[in-house]
Amino acid sequence: MSRSLNKGPWVEERLLAKIANKKPTETGVIKTWYRRSMISPEMVGFTFGVYNGRQHLDVYVTEDMVGHRLGEFSPTKKFVRHGGKMQKELEIKAKEAEINAAKAAKGPTETPAAKK
After folding, report:
1. Is the dihedral of CA 73, 57, 34, 37 positive or negative?
2. Is residue 96 part of a domain?
3. Which terminus of the chain is more exposed, N or C, with fewer CB under 10 A?
4. What does pTM read for this prediction?
């Protein structure tokens, strides 16, 4: 559920204090744990290291991101993949095809026995 429009956007004050009177080119990655903080226009151009529960992921803020939250750009879950036996067979076939294509691109190689 979104925040009421009457209340306005919520931006963490400490986060704004970190970027106050600084230029985006001079500062490096600004580490933050405030995933729920909304991106304001003052943040455009800065790179934030947003914590996802395991590590800080670098998020470069652009104009399109204004109004969204920092946590939206730092996923907390990693999608492994769906599949199983059929998926493994398809991957093996694709890998074999790639190897064969690489061998074909190299061209025929002469063996020492063929030279005699």
Report:
1. negative
2. no
3. N
4. 0.64
Average of per-residue pLDDT across 43-51: 92
Give every CB contact of residue 39 below 8 A, 6+ residues apart in sequence: 61, 65, 66, 67, 68, 69, 70
The mean of the pLDDT values for the chain is 85
Q: What domain count does the chain have?
A: 1
Residues 6+ apart with CB under 8 A from 67: 9, 38, 39
Q: What is the CATH number of the domain that holds 49?
A: 3.30.860.10
Domain membership of residue 34 as a residue range: 13-73
Whether residue 33 lies inside any domain: the answer is yes
Within a domain: 98 = no
Q: What is the pLDDT of residue 86?
A: 83
Separation between Cα atoms, residue 36 and residue 42, nearest integer Å: 17
